Amino acid sequence: MSQKNPNAERYIAIARACLKAINDTAAKAGDREQKIQAVYEAIDTAFQAEFKSQRQAVAVMATVLERIASGELSAEKAAELARKTLNQQPQTHGKTRMH
């Protein structure tokens, strides 16, 4: 993956968490299913951490859209609110692929 990809840091962080979990569980005694579950949990934790800001951004945008959709704002105020909201969002929104 190219370092120019805006998601490269996220992929790297998730990959590191996965590798750490695999290495940690490989070194420990225990049954195979427990080791697999530990790796799954590490992957889930890494994904949750990496996408926390996106979930927050989506919640903010949903609130703004609800306010705009209510019809209580003029077209100018609605556009201004939309611009402000977009300017505050993570830079990965738009045309880049997530994977």
Task: Give the topology, please.
Elements: H1 8-27, H2 32-50, H3 52-69, H4 75-87
Can you walk through the features of this model?
The structure is a single chain. This protein is mainly alpha-helical. It is 71% helix and 0% strand. It contains four helices and no strands. The protein has helices spanning 8-27, 32-50, 52-69, 75-87. It is elongated. The N and C termini lie close together (10 Å).
Major pleated sheet: none
Shape: elongated
What structural category do the secondary elements indicate? mainly alpha
Helix and strand element order: HHHH
Total strand count, please? Answer: 0
Which percent range describes the beta-strand content? Answer: under 5%
Span from first to last CA?
Answer: 10 Å
Q: Kindly provide the radius of gyration, computed on alpha-carbon positions and rounded to a whole number of angstroms.
A: 20 Å
Mean pLDDT figure? 82
Total DSSP helices: 4
The stretches of 5 or more residues where confidence is low (pLDDT under 50) are 93-99
| Helical content class | over 70%
